[in-house]
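Much of our argument rests on the idea that a fold can be written as discrete symbols. This step matters because it turns folding into a mapping between discrete strings. The record that follows shows the chain in one-letter code together with its fold in token form.
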Amino acid sequence: MTIDAFNRQATQFRRLALQASTAAGADADTAEDVAQETLLRLWQMRDDPRLYNPEGYATVIARHLTLNQLRRKPPLPLDEHQATDLTVPSPLDLMLQREDEQWLRQRIRNLPYTQHAILRLREVEHRSNEEIATILGIQPSSVNTLLARARRQLLKEIQQSRKN
């Protein structure tokens, strides 16, 4: 087959390869990749005397390439628990998360006012030490000390709750 003859038939080969690939179960991107690979293989076989039916070869090559690609993909899980999307938390996980958040909010509310205010201004509002000191009317050096005390107190309560 000459270069001109191949170029004239390439669109037909590509269309056949796309059809065969999508029929075998490939998505659009995979089918496009398979069609390109099919055209490359047909081009490499263009002088082979056994290539008497290039349309049939295009279809067979595309189907085999698609099946090979599908075999490389990991299998779908058979267990119903594995089949669920891992990014979506279960109702139990949501309930536990809400309970943890409520527990933490309660512990933060129980902190002394200044520690509570500093923790909120730093962690929620992302204020600097100077801004926090100005808002609360304390020394900037005291902000770090009070913030560390608040965090240490929360950590201590978290560790105690895990022991129980």
In short: The chain has two domains: 3-72, 91-163. The mean pLDDT is 85. The radius of gyration is 33 Å.
